[in-house]
Amino acid sequence: MSMNFDRAAGYYDATRGYRPEIGSAIAKSLAQAVDASAATRFLEIGVGTGRIAIPLEQQGYAITGVDISLGMMARLADKVAELERAGRPVDVTLVEADMQVLPFDDGEYDAVIAAHVFHLVADPIRAALEALRVTAEGGSLLVCADMISGHEPMSVSEKWREIVRDTYGPIPSSAEAADDLLRELRIADPSLSITGLRPVNWHFTTTAANDLENIRQRLWSNTWSLPDDVFAACLQELTRWCLAVFGDRMTDPLPREGEFVIRRVRRDVQ
Question: How far apart are CA 101 and CA 106, in angstroms?
């Protein structure tokens, strides 16, 4: 079953949002990845609260956004309304739809953006092929994900995935899931060319206490599908690990590097 992010709409921007300069750099990189012009037709599947769509539109591109979460798109609509009240027309069209069955014609868009979404859908291959269906000949599907690295032996999030994997089953990161999908997609359609781009990097800090609390509150989607008893057992083990590894350094700043990864998928033109 595909995940609906209505439950996250109220805190999504606070926990997943990009700083303005990072959002702008990501939008610029996406436009460069497809050699965009003012006439380029963009579609973002899983548009959410617009953390990618708004910066891209602000750089002069019209964009259509699709999502199954009305709550997330309501947040985006509020942002659009705020910009328009400030005298800034915004060319964003929102459509409620399942990415596995897009309500668009074949080849309707020049560039389709899919950021952190394919691991959330029931049938990722079907969704990817559907995205390619609505991509124009010579156009691009941009499969995107954040990759986060740190300097201690293992981050709290990495340890969480390890514990859940050993207890319940694998929960790959969005970047790992995207790479798995692209391998399957290449097998399903050998005519596809896939190019990896890593254009945007940034630095930030977190703490072990903050990361643990985010998991305890089940803010991350990789906690949602776990039965309550499994979640409680995994959380207890993670808490013990954090205390053993970090001790009285639970609130010390931990340096992190974020990287926005773009995988550009194109079908060879015959």
Answer: 12
Tokens describing residue 228: 């309550």
Measured distance CA(8)–CA(72) in Å, rounded = 8
| Direct distance between the N- and C-terminal alpha carbons of the chain, in angstroms, rounded to an integer | 36
Contact present, 141 and 114 (Cβ < 8 Å): yes
Closest to 189 measured CA to CA, from 263, 149, 113, 130:
130
Residue 148: per-residue pLDDT: 87
C-alpha 256/C-alpha 27 separation (Å) is: 22
Count of residues making up the chain: 270
| Domain range 5-148+173-205+255-267, CATH architecture | 3-Layer(aba) Sandwich (3.40)
pLDDT along the chain (270 residues), means of 10: 88 94 97 96 97 96 97 96 92 96 97 94 93 96 90 85 95 86 90 89 95 97 95 98 96 94 83
For residue range 202-227, list pLDDT tens digits in order: 999 999 999 999 999 999 999 999 99
Helix, strand, or coil (residue 166): helix
Which residue type does 68 have?
Answer: I
* DSSP secondary structure, 105-151, as one string: -TT-EEEEEEES-GGGSS-HHHHHHHHHHTEEEEEEEEEEEEEEEES
82-133 tens-digit pLDDT: 999 999 889 999 999 999 999 999 999 999 999 999 989 989 999 999 999 9
Cβ partners under 8 Å of residue 248, min gap 6: none
